[in-house]
Amino acid sequence: MQHNKNFMKQIFTIFILNNFIFIGYCQDFKYIKPKLTDSTKVVKVEFDTKNQFERIYYIDYAINSQAKKESINFGVVDTKPNGSIGFTYFGILKNLNNKPPKINSNLPERWVKIYKYKGEWILFNDIPKYILTDSCLMTFQMDDPVSSIIVDHKQENNKYEYDLLFYNWENPTINLSSSLQIKIIDSKRLIALWKFDFQGQVTYDLMIPINQVSHFPAMVMLETDLMDDEYEIFDKIYYEKLWNK
Fold first, then answer.
1. Which of 46, 60, 76, 175 could form a disulfide linkage to 55, CB 3.0–4.6 angstroms apart?
2. pLDDT at 137 (0 to 100)
3. Does the residue 156 lie in any domain?
4. Which helix (H) or strand (E) holds 100?
5. Do the domain assignments include residue 78?
6. C-alpha count within 13 angstroms, C-beta hemisphere, residue 2
7. How far apart are CA 130 and CA 133, in angstroms?
8. What is the DSSP letter of 230?
9. Residue 9: is its pLDDT beyond 80?
10. What does each C-alpha distance from 236 to 46, 113, 117, 208 come to in angstroms?
């Protein structure tokens, strides 16, 4: 009788192990075969054998890694911008009597997102990405990239403020207004906190210009299926507190 109980416990244990989501820190992969090098370090592995799901996080410390090349890829050529960028830009202008004057904010043009992992800054190929010019802000997101027009600008110390007009997809004859504030929180590496205010809804993004990406490692994530919790590996940032600091 005792032998049967022990046997049933073993079966139950095997069942639990086969259906539990494991989190490991080794290079024993089940479904994904990442191309690792001497410059990479696996920091987390998750797999669910029941659903045949696996997710791998690793950090690439190479200065010119493929991960960094992908993070600074905007998918457009400056001389021939995407059709949706021109469509939204000229759609906004159509509702204005005069074209706003160009600005000079002395900030770099191309910006990508940056995160913190265990207290250290780290890149992660994510959207949105931005191109900030002397006349517009181009936003690269899940859908086609779009353009907004800068109608006013001012600078005070380490803060840059922009008044923006967006294309109104529901009523193209009426532009939508928004504001963008950029606060430089690290003047040496130009790490900046971007604060958008659109119709009372405030959102934040931590950004760096692409000429700074070589100074940071890049986090790479591979997974067998799309999930919505991939950002949980990063440190939680209290944006409002950081803005008011």
1. 46
2. 97
3. yes
4. none
5. yes
6. 0
7. 10
8. G
9. no
10. 20, 15, 9, 18
* pTM of the full structure: 0.84
Q: Is 233 helix (H, G, I), strand (E, B) or coil?
A: helix
Residue type for 21, please?
Answer: I
Confidence class for position 21, pLDDT limits 50, 70, 90:
very low
The answer on pLDDT for 1 being more than 60 is no
Q: State how far the alpha carbon of 73 is from the alpha carbons of 70, 133, 175, 212, in Å.
A: 5, 17, 29, 14
118, two tokens: 């265990």
Q: Give the domain range for residue 74.
A: 30-42+58-217
**Residue 245, domain member (yes or no):** no
Q: Is 107 left (phi over 0), alpha (psi -120 to 50) or beta?
A: beta
What is the tens place of the pLDDT at every residue in 179-219? Answer: 999 999 999 999 999 999 998 999 999 999 999 999 999 99
Look up residue 101 and give its DSSP letter: P
Closest by CA position to 129, among listed 121, 118, 140: 140
**Backbone phi, then psi, for 69, in 5-degree steps?**
-60, -40
Q: How many domains does the chain have?
A: 1
